Amino acid sequence: MITGSCLCSQVSYEISGKVGDVIHCHCQTCRKAHGAAFSSVASVPDDAFTLKGEENLKSFESSKGKHRYFCSNCGTQIYAKREATSHIILRLGSLDNADGLVEKSHIWVSDKASWYQINNNLPEYQEYE
């Protein structure tokens, strides 16, 4: 079973199903939300995601219809959710364990931090692909 949690452990989760391919998002919103060059994410079906400590989550609508959920105590980004979808966008930095995940691509490379160089052979897309 794949598990994850926030830095202070007030929010944790379990994943009972398949985690999608890893996408590295370089958009400005992800960079600012995570304080990093990019955010590594993967989709998880809603019914495979069990959350504990949900009362400790806060959310922020970072773009129309997309809410980012983070721990109200330590600030760890846990997941995002777009309206009318049947999956979450898991923030992979919150994983405790996860063998077998596969990197797929870099997206929003048009917004990439100027000081960061992509040094792998994954496909790169200027926007969302």
UniProtKB/TrEMBL annotation:
Signal peptide segment: none
Alphabetically ordered keywords of this record: Lyase, Metal-binding, Zinc
Q: Which PROSITE patterns match?
A: CENP_V_GFA
Entry's SUPFAM superfamilies?
A: Mss4-like
Q: Which residues cross the membrane?
A: none
InterPro entries on file: CENP-V/GFA, Mss4-like_sf
- What is one Pfam family matched by this protein? GFA
Q: Which GO terms describe its molecular function?
A: carbon-sulfur lyase activity; metal ion binding
The record places domain CENP-V/GFA at 2-126
Q: Which family does it belong to?
A: Belongs to the Gfa family.
Designated name of the protein: CENP-V/GFA domain-containing protein
Which species expresses this protein natively?
Leucothrix arctica
